[in-house]
C-alpha cells in the first residue's frame, strides 16, 4: 500500500522543513512525497531542494494558487492513497502507520480522521479556537459517502478540509480542485464523498497537526476573495451537483444554505455587486428543479419546499 503525500508550498520558508520532516519521521517505507513550490519568492524552493531522497518529488511552478498546486500533485501521484498536507502543518509520527492499519481492516475508499491545533502566537488562542473533531455518531462506522454526508450535516459536523481525509487515487480521476478561488475545499470534499458514493470509514483519532498563525486563511479578515470563493462554490454545486438526485436531499440544501449564509454575511456591500449573477443562478436552478420533478416521481409536493430552500436564501440576499 503506497501513500502519496501532496504538499503545496508558497513562501513557507519558516515551516516547510518541519512539515517535510514530520512526514519522514513516520518511517513509512512505501511512500512518495510530492512538494509543489507554487512560485515562492523566499527560500522555500532552496529548502525543498535540500531534501535529496529519491521518493521526494520536487516541482517548481509559477504561482497559480493552492488549488492548482494540489491538482498538479494529484496528476503526479502514483500511490494507492492520496493525503494532503499544508506546508505549515505537520503529521503525527504514527499517522501513516495508523492509516495503513485502518485501510487494511476497513477496506474503505476514504478514511476520515481528526486534527490537533497548535498556535504560533499565544494571543491567537483567545481569538481563534477552530475545532476539527467529528461527531461521535460517525466514529468507527463503515458508511457510504452519501450516508456520511447526511449524518455529518444533520449533526452540524461536516468538515470540508481535505487534509483530514485520505482517499484512493482512482477517486481523484474525475474530481479536481476549482482553481482561482478560496474555499475550494467545499466543492472538492463534497464531490469526493458524493460523486461516486465511495465507502468511507471515520476514526476518532487526531492524526494531523494544524498550525494557526497570523496571515493564515483562518486568521485573515473576510473580504472579497472570501465572497468570490463562496459564490463560486454555491454556483458550482448548484449547476454541477455530484448527481441530480442530491438536489432533493435536505442535507445537500442545508449545505448550500450554509454557504449562502457565509456569502451573505461575509461582506454585504460586496454581496450587492452579485445581484444579477445570483438572479441568473436562481432562474437556472428553478429550471433544473422543474426538469428533475418531471423525471423523478418521488419529488412531489412534500419535497418541493425543501428543494427550493437555496432559492429562498438567494432571494433573501437579493432583497437586502
From TrEMBL:
It comes from the Bacteria. Its EC number is 2.4.-.-. It is an enzyme of class 2 (transferase). SUPFAM superfamilies: Nucleotide-diphospho-sugar transferases. Keywords: Glycosyltransferase, Transferase. Pfam families: Glycos_transf_2. The keyword Transferase applies. One of its GO terms (molecular function) is hexosyltransferase activity. Residues 4-147 form the Glycosyltransferase 2-like domain. This is Putative glycosyltransferase EpsJ. It comes from Klebsiella africana. The gene is epsJ_2.
